[in-house]
Amino acid sequence: MGESPDFLPRVLVVTLNPQHRETFEKILRPYFQLAIFRTVDEAMDEAAKNHAQVIVIDQNGRRDRNSASFLDHVSRLKQHCPGLIATVGAGIEFDIDKAHLRLPSRFLNWPFKPKQLLDAVSQVIGEKAEFTWKLMPKEIGRPLTVTVEEYQSISDAIANG
């Protein structure tokens, strides 16, 4: 597969499943710098060297919640990554309070549509930026936040017809 330009946001994916790997490649590679790993430890090493915007942890279609494992990954990866996405098997719900994670996160069930994954990655990246803007002085941060809200309402109106 071709390489993504360096200016694109960096997304790391952890998956052991070859079909899932192919799906992530097809959906994410055109829009993001993408690196795929077999273990969370490999992704952590890479994130420590080259900051990532999002790390996707594929739970390999697991049929259990595996929440404790995901929370462990979150605490280990938090310092290297502004956001996390977990993918799990159909019908699984994570019983995790997102406020407890203290970083933007999304949970997707397989199978998901390409737009769902792209939206989740974009939302996680955007939430981190907006969080940073809220820490800025109001006269600087507020116009940035309002601009994003306006663009989002335009985008939503177009999407809804």
Helix content: 40-55%
Task: Provide the structure class.
Answer: alpha/beta
State the distance separating the first and last CA atoms: 35 Å
Number of strands: 5
User: Quick one: biggest sheet?
Assistant: 5 strands, parallel
List unreliable stretches of 5+ residues: none
Kindly report the spatial arrangement of strands forming the biggest sheet: 2-1-3-4-5
Quote the average pLDDT. 80
Order of H and E elements: EHEHEHEHEHH
**Strand residue content:** 15-25%
Summed up, the helix count is: 6
The backbone outline, from C-alpha atoms, is: globular
Q: Which key terms come to mind for this protein?
A:
5 strands, 16% strand, 161 residues, five-stranded parallel β-sheet
Map the helices and strands.
Blueprint: E1 10-14, H1 18-28, E2 33-37, H2 40-49, E3 54-58, H3 67-77, E4 84-88, H4 98-101, E5 105-109, H5 114-135, H6 138-159
Parallel strand pairs: 1-2, 1-3, 3-4, 4-5
Helix pairs in contact: 5-6
What report would you give on this structure?
With 161 residues, the protein is of the alpha/beta class. Helix content is 50%, strand content 16%. The protein has helices at 18-28, 40-49, 67-77, 98-101, 114-135, 138-159, and strands at 10-14, 33-37, 54-58, 84-88, 105-109. Strands 2-1-3-4-5 form a 5-stranded parallel beta sheet, with helices on both faces. The radius of gyration is 16 Å and the shape is globular. The model has no long low-confidence stretch (mean pLDDT 80).
